[in-house]
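request received
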Amino acid sequence: MEQILTVKNLKKSYGNMFAVNGVSFSIDRGEIFALIGPNGAGKSTILKMVATLLSPTDGKIDVGGFDVVKNSNSVREIISYLPEDSGAYKNLTGIEYLKIMAGLYNDDNKKQKEYIEKGKAISGLNSRLSDKVGTYSKGMIRKLLLARTVMIAPKLAILDEPTSGLDVINAMEIRRTIKDLTKQGMTVLLSSHNMLEIEFLSDRVAIIDNGKIHDSGTPSELKKKYGKVNLEEVFVEAVKPSFAQNKEIK
Amino acid sequence: MKKFLILLKKEIKELLTLQTILPLVITAGLFMFIGNIVSKEAEKTNKPQDVVLINQDNSTLSSFVVENLTKANVNVSLSTENDINKAISDARGSNKSAILIIPSGFEQAILSGNQKKIDVYTVINNFSISGSKNYTNLLAAFAVTNETLSNSLIKQKIVDINPNVIKNPLAQNEFIVVGDKKANASPNEIMGFVSQQTMFIPIILFFVIVFASQMIATAVANEKENKTLETLLTTPVSRKAIVAAKMMGAGVVALLASVIYIFGFKSYIGGITGGQKATEQTSQIISSLGLSLNTNSYILLGLSLFAGILVALAISLILGAFAEDVKGVAGLTTPLMIIVAIPYFLTMFTDINSLSPAMRYLVYAIPFSHIFMAAPNLFLHNYAPVIWGIVYQLIVFGLFVWIAAWIFSTDKIITMKLNFSKMRKFNKNR
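response:
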């Protein structure tokens, strides 16, 4: 199987504090790989480094055969990133936003039209796409942004907390969309602290805390390994030694 | 290039909103409105002053005074009322601005070489400038009448002599020298006219720079706060194109805003100065001295302003990158505003060249000083300092663009922040 993303011994420090400390994993084409962990575990930092936003302090990230530090421009051609809690330009209409983003990914007008049509369909916003983004609800903005992220058919979609802050209905719709898109060959790296969501979406999971991966595998493998019924309990069990150690230090 | 144009369009669309334009249009409209009102008030005060005059002397000389006051734009209504309180009450009722009483014995006293005062009761209805203008106009009319009366008396007492020689034996013939040109005119009149014509230039320049700076810093902070910048930075667009589009977008909107503002402000200034136009003689003198801006001067002034705006935009882009959210922008851009204000006020109230060398070089080091110094230099045809000023501004601009591009091409754009509210909290808690 072709590997789309390879992360080796990745580190990111701010002063003496390591936000990410020696993380390694890889993702195959068409796979949904999830990083799960509490707030501040280092999930978003890893995603930002893969998305070329932050430079690693140490280690190596390879996306589709390109190094994120040395070939960041080539990496940006094949990835698409959805930041956590992000907004869109309030004074643009939904359709204007999709057009602008399509134009930034491809100079070819025909290709741009393809992206926009796909974006329109994925967003499900129909006639509301003609309204200004400033008039959208949080769920509508998230759908628009998800549509923008995946409409260009990236080799790797990086989704940071894709359903954070959304109601149950909107969250379910977005999860279903992500799942459907991977069936068409898209690879997804996502982060979440919602274990239920991860269990539903992911092919493989990495449990992360204090900047380190504590364990990884398919949800069923992990549940079996730790003898637990859900990922939430698996997570607690997996990070227990680190939690106890931190408590001692405090 | 295509991606740059897409980004530019996006920036302009984001900046050119009803919320941005409406306050400007309202401000410009208010300026026009105030200018219009002031202009109408000024017209009113230039009308002949309505006064009541009680001539208790009824002499040839008192009639001479009445006649000359009338010639000096005073509308005199004669009254025979002897009760001053009644006269005041009547005057107030008929909207007269003053009551003048020429006392009996006026002519006799003057002709015998003694002063005899005319009583002047000024009716004050308000304390505005237009209210005091009535009194000023009356004083001017008195001065003219006094001059005529004085000349007449001198002629009566000393035959065959020009009264001006007695009053002002020392008279000056005034010339103005500008560069290698000279003209026979009063410096006060010419300097007053030129400064009146150019007084709005620094105000507009200050406004444009402040507006552009605030706009781009807010735009960057807003993108950081909404995380739209994170999305933009992961697209396959060069970071330089992102920086350039942001600066150009803000520059275009700032220029448009300044046009609206200039339009309103010119109407305002036109109103408060009464749309004063140069007399034909003044125009000729100004032209012969070359004290007007030609096409080249306007191009240089425009280039200087443009270079200054570019510097302000580049600095503000960096400041915006430091902001964690839009609320933090005001605090971050305040030092820049102060730096712009220093040359603004200095050029309004003093000549930079008269400052001490240390202070002068400090002012020269501020890139915005060269914009404010450009207009006076261009009026005096000192092109070299203006050109060097533009070159210096462009060098400073290049330096700040390089810094901005570096910040945007590293993860500093995501990680660096200055949060004043957190800093305040930290200091409080310490």
